[in-house]
Write a structure and sequence with these properties.
There is one protein chain. This protein is of the alpha/beta class. It has a single domain (2-163, 189-217, 260-275), classed as NAD(P)-binding Rossmann-like Domain (Rossmann fold, 3-Layer(aba) Sandwich), CATH 3.40.50. The chain is 41% helix and 18% strand. The protein contains ten helices and 13 strands. The protein has helices at 11-22, 44-54, 77-98, 131-146, 166-176, 193-204, 223-234, 245-248, 264-268, 277-289; strands at 2-6, 26-31, 37-38, 58-61, 101-107, 150-155, 158-159, 179-183, 187-188, 191-192, 210-213, 221-222, 239-243. Strands 3-2-1-4-5-6-11 form a seven-stranded parallel beta sheet, sandwiched between helices. Strands 7-10 form a two-stranded parallel ribbon. Strands 8-13 form a two-stranded parallel sheet. Helix 4 (131-146) links the parallel strand 5 (101-107) and strand 6. The protein is globular. The two termini are 31 Å apart.
């Protein structure tokens, strides 16, 4: 199987290419800069030409604007939508022309983040709380409008080896501070890109199309809970102080209180869920030690 992967300079795209090669598939990766094949996904003509030339069996679309707070800056809004909505539309249109299946990586931020019930894949997504969520939802709608052979995979709380993430940040803070304040009223489950990549390739090898929710398993936790486990496994004695979102007050973009994602559909469709998040975190910390 030949697979075209966008955003290979990021955490997930990098791991997806590694997983494809591990299984003996042919992988072509793109990003804005070398060593990946350079591609600006907002350039409709360039996207169409590249995918037509590669003629992949599947496209796994990981490229996105993910700087949630920076997306709120008025001067960035147009660019955020050009990448997350317009760029995704360009990829989808090229997939349609090439008759390639598409996997679009989306986010829990497409929901309004209210309530306590885990979001199901077919729950109506509306009223995202911030520009990032709005742009990713627009990307979902472009995929659904243009394609029939698609997977929309919503993920949350992502961490991986190839990039910045919450775990790295908390480790850095924990090594330089005696105490740290962490939000205790936003709930979800972490997602390790190494594990997620495996499942995405599993999906690409099937035709079980539709919307899916994917995180590691192990229950729903707060960022405070996550931080305490990071420090426990890392052997740090940094004191973690729980605070409300309002008390924390540093984020420009509104964050969802409820990022719980229901993953029952994965099992129903025969996919193997990801390992528990505590195990994923332990494996990730070992990866960081080896750097």
């Amino acid at each position: 199987m030949k697979v075209f992967v966008t955003g290979v300079g990021g955490q997930l795209g990098h791991d997806v290419v590694e997983e494809l090669l591990r299984r003996g598939h042919e992988a072509v990766g793109s990003d804005l800069t070398p060593p990946a094949v350079p591609l600006d996904i907002t350039d409709e003509i360039a996207v169409g030409k590249m995918i037509a030339e590669i003629h992949p069996d599947a496209v796994i679309h990981c490229a996105a604007w993910t700087a949630v707070d920076a997306a709120e800056e008025p001067e960035n809004r147009e660019k955020v939508f050009a990448i997350n909505a317009g760029g995704t539309r360009n990829i989808a249109a090229a997939c349609r022309a090439a008759e390639a299946k598409m996997i679009y990586i989306s986010t829990d931020y497409v929901f309004d983040g209210q309530g306590e019930q885990p979001w199901r894949p077919d729950d109506p997504a509306f009223a995202p709380l911030n520009v990032y969520g709005q742009s990713k939802l627009a990307g979902e709608r472009a995929v659904e409008e243009l394609l029939e052979q698609y997977f929309i995979v919503r993920i949350a709380w992502v961490f991986g080896k190839n990039g910045k993430n919450f775990v790295r940040t908390m480790l850095n803070v924990g090594r330089t501070h005696d105490t740290v304040r962490v939000v205790n009223d936003q709930f979800g489950t972490p997602t390790y890109t190494f594990d997620l990549a495996r499942l995405l390739v599993d999906m690409a090898e099937t035709e079980k199309y539709g919307r899916y929710h994917v995180t590691n398993t192990g229950g729903y936790i707060s960022w405070y809970d996550f931080t305490r486990e990071i420090y426990r496994q890392a052997g740090l004695d940094t004191r973690v102080i729980p605070v409300t979102t309002e008390e924390y007050g540093l984020s420009r973009a509104a964050r969802p209180r409820n990022s719980r994602l229901n993953q029952e559909k994965l099992r129903q469709m025969g996919f193997e869920p990801l390992p528990v998040w505590q195990d994923a975190l332990g494996r990730y910390l070992k990866e960081l030690e080896q750097e």
